[in-house]
Amino acid sequence: MRTRVTDMLGIEFPIFAFSHCRDVVAAVSRAGGMGVLGALYFTPEELEVELAWIDEHAGGRPYGVDVVMPASYEGAGLDVDSPEDLVARLQGMIPEGHRRFVDDLLAAHGVAELPDSEAGAGKVLLGWTDATARPQVEVALRHPIALLANALGPPPADVVEAAHARGVRVAALASTPGHAVKQVEVGVDIVVAQGTEAGGHTGDISTMVLIPQVVDVVDVPVLAAGGIGNGRQMAAGMALGAEGVWTGSVWLAVEEADTPEPARRRILAATSRDTVRSRSWTGKPARLLRNEWTEAWEAGDSPGTLPMPLQFMLVSDALRRIGRSDAAELATFPAGQIIGAMNQVRSAKEVVFTMVEEYIEAVERLGRLSG
Amino acid sequence: MRTRVTDMLGIEFPIFAFSHCRDVVAAVSRAGGMGVLGALYFTPEELEVELAWIDEHAGGRPYGVDVVMPASYEGAGLDVDSPEDLVARLQGMIPEGHRRFVDDLLAAHGVAELPDSEAGAGKVLLGWTDATARPQVEVALRHPIALLANALGPPPADVVEAAHARGVRVAALASTPGHAVKQVEVGVDIVVAQGTEAGGHTGDISTMVLIPQVVDVVDVPVLAAGGIGNGRQMAAGMALGAEGVWTGSVWLAVEEADTPEPARRRILAATSRDTVRSRSWTGKPARLLRNEWTEAWEAGDSPGTLPMPLQFMLVSDALRRIGRSDAAELATFPAGQIIGAMNQVRSAKEVVFTMVEEYIEAVERLGRLSG
């Protein structure tokens, strides 16, 4: 297969695999697609370790890194000395009533406290402020990455420049045609147009409706994202005008993924109606597994969610506590509607190859239908 | 183009056009697609007039009729003598607080009362109960229709039989794979798998995710619906495994449509973010133009919506009053996300032909990309 994207990045198939798991990233790149490591959860030191591992295991094939530099978040204008200072200032902005709501919810489900040694020791800010994402970008650019992607709007212009100076291409996710135009204005090389059915942070326009609108307003290549997990969906995305596909949820259940077993079981059992767009994870709308956690934040006694990054700071410890408990009914995570079609565990390579085969079959079938 | 659907119905292009406007229905059928008249708003007598007109103006080409026989609605089990009796019994089930909420909302926007001669004279029940939809079916089956479609779930088995006895094919809309299986069990010939981006009554799974799942669980042909307004989207729907496309919103703005001018202007100006899935029209989730009407029903002081058919009975007069007023901020109607891509008025024939041309271009491009 050949599109502007395969030419630009030197890959065999225009299949991009977003994953927080280095094994998946390396496996997809080795199979001819392009793995993209989500850096969000890693400190700069941890990210360095992950990328060094990928450098050794991707077989010299191109791979990418995805960071989250939101165009807007609480505390963006604060004059702070360090990430620690920023965290302290932001912690003070979380209302007591919200903390109580979370405590009560966990108590109602019998979720145990963290041991004293671990309370408050978790990562509460992650890479979604300028101050915390920039060190990740610096680490990423020290590695032979082919692509730097930004998950929430246009990256800062100087980040785009720094990437380009090192021969790294830049992609950014867009959920409206207007977002896409702004991204191209700051120099983005590839627009990832992502429909509402996608997992994680997402807009409200569907992939079917969004892709042609984005393709028509930008001259850079577009990847179709949201709801894409098989080759028919890949062909559909390309029929809409995209030059490749950006996938995420489908990699949660592959053999290589470090997805915890309870989460994997729930993904394999879920239908496409078992996700919901919710602000209860980060404060910005993200598609998550629908359960008692997401529903509690919508209920009548919910205090409402806080803006990014306060919401995750509020719930960070709670999510760790839930993860260690038996309260599976509260354990949520980003997941797209495609999880309803995922019901077996395959290797990443098999997913890539099956997607390509099914893509070719779909295109041949279309040719036959129109004579 | 040739699929099982074109063969089954003797049409040139597998493009189905749902419209409440007879002119659109006839024009699409004459252009080689298949117009399908939405019967919902018509009394049996009115429907007779519309279908007689289409018989004269469709040039002998196949056309269809769409009715709404929901599988469940309030009052379904009532023992009533007549539709009028049913209306009276159902009126008694509408809480006073809900009537007051509607009155207050309209007063706040300066919407005038109806003249005494017209108050309560409007249609409040429409064709969405068994008692009111069956007479529509009887009228439809007296005409040379090729297709009878049901918009809310599987039609009653005896209706399917009556249609088949007259050589009429039956279609039904499905928003989950499970719905589709049930429809095939009652004898439906074509499943219309409709994604959440569609206008009117709709589920929550996107077209991209839904179509392959439906195609994989039924053996009858599937039409892709939801978000389809151009040939790239048609090609995408077919790539997903569909054998044709079912379209709706795109016909609201064609030359032949009887869409009121203010509504047409708003459609042409809207973005794809200007719709919302709301129960404020009929009590079941339907995608509508998002405005102060839909928002009022979501606000903190909303009494919540009533189940079908009570909600429309409650708001029927209000919608007529709004339609006659200058309160455009309250005037809503069913509309899919595709309205964001509709910005010119074309003839129905031009829409059909452009869709086919663009479909062919998209398929040829796919062939080139994969060599």
Q: What report would you give on this structure?
A:
- The structure is a homodimer of 371-residue chains.
- Helices cover 42% and strands 12% of the residues of chain A.
- Chain A has helices spanning 4-9, 22-30, 44-57, 83-91, 96-108, 130-141, 157-165, 177-185, 207-217, 231-239, 261-269, 292-298, 310-324, 348-369, and strands spanning 15-19, 34-38, 64-67, 147-150, 169-174, 190-194, 200-201, 222-225, 245-247, 275-278, 286-289.
- In chain A, helix 8 packs parallel to helix 9.
- The longest helix of chain A has 22 residues, at 348-369.
- An eight-stranded parallel beta barrel of chain A has the order 1-2-3-4-5-6-8-9, surrounded by six helices. A three-stranded antiparallel sheet of chain A has the order 7-11-10, with no helix packed on it.
- The first copy, chain A, has 14 helices and eleven strands.
- With 371 residues, chain A is of the alpha/beta class.
- Chain A folds into two domains: 4-73 and 128-255 and 341-369, Aldolase class I (TIM Barrel), CATH 3.20.20.70; 85-125 and 259-330, no CATH class.
Describe the secondary structure blueprint for this structure.
2 copies of one chain form a homodimer.
Chain A: H1 4-9, E1 15-19, H2 22-30, E2 34-38, H3 44-57, E3 64-67, H4 83-91, H5 96-108, H6 130-141, E4 147-150, H7 157-165, E5 169-174, H8 177-185, E6 190-194, E7 200-201, H9 207-217, E8 222-225, H10 231-239, E9 245-247, H11 261-269, E10 275-278, E11 286-289, H12 292-298, H13 310-324, H14 348-369
Parallel strand pairs in A: 1-2, 1-9, 2-3, 3-4, 4-5, 5-6, 6-8, 8-9
Antiparallel strand pairs in A: 7-11, 10-11
Helix pairs in contact in A: 2-3, 3-6, 5-13, 8-9, 10-14
